[in-house]
Amino acid sequence: MPPLHILLAVLIQVLWGPCYTLTKPIVGIFPPLMLVAMVYSIVALLFTPLVPRAKTPRRTLFLIGFFGGALQTSMVFLSLKYLPASTAVLAMQMQLPVAVVASWFMGRDKPNLKNTIGSIVCLIGVAIVVGRPEATDAWFGLAAMLVGVISWSVTQAVIPVVAKDQGMTLYAAMARYAAPQMIVMSLLFESGQWQVATSAPLAAWAAVPAIALLGFALPYAIWYWLLMRHRVDELTPFLLLMPVFGVVVAATQLGEPLPASLLLGGAVVIAGLAVIVIRRGGRGIGQATAPN
């Protein structure tokens, strides 16, 4: 990869890790689905007039906007509501082993011992981080993250095949479909949106466009631009940086503790991811996908 592309791949992780972590207090103010609806609405309204018309078919955009945007992000935000930010960010790294399995089922890669071992190590690491949840809310948060992980991983495996756009053009088009989908979902499954909107502090409102622009629009536009220029196995090693930034921000900015189980489990998760992405004979995970 050219040096500029490497810098861009690192920048994505610098933005993604802290963004998801710092979203934790915001989902305590705004209902998660409402927050996702606002994020995608901001992206769609700001960037649609600035990008060319999408060439990807509308039906395709509707589907990838839902599974790669609306469903995935809403599940991650729900998980952040019920789990510590550091735990959620580490659990999110299950996207890579899920992506490996998705690539097997799609016939884009063949099962191999290295990826199997790496996936098992990741599962062990997540189990150490999470421990044995005693509360129903914790189980719900983990289940939501699993749904988001699967939705994102499978969608990313499909995007390079079905999308005819890239960068901000693709992401703005996805946001145009994800925004109304999320508005409907919020109206159906949440209540009290008006009361929250009128009582939320100014700092919370200021955080919404910051999340939309710095946590979603910019990194995702760069990601989709790189995804059309490089194999996914060239990009996935950079994902090892995301939980590092996320956990550090959770400890320093949110005051979350760093128990030994979290540090040990995080190290095991990263080790498992490393096993998967390290190339063997010039080949990584082949055509498998990568997460957010």
UniProtKB/TrEMBL annotation:
Domain EamA: 6-130, 140-277
Family matches, as Pfam families: EamA (PF00892)
Subcellular location: Membrane
Lineage: Bacteria, Pseudomonadati, Pseudomonadota, Alphaproteobacteria, Rhodospirillales
Transmembrane intervals: 33-51, 60-80, 86-106, 113-132, 138-163, 170-190, 202-226, 238-254, 260-278
Topology class, membrane: Multi-pass membrane protein
Entries under InterPro entries matching the protein: AA-Vitamin_Transporters, EamA_dom, EmrE-like
Protein name: DMT family transporter
Keywords noted in UniProt: Membrane, Transmembrane, Transmembrane helix
Primary location: membrane
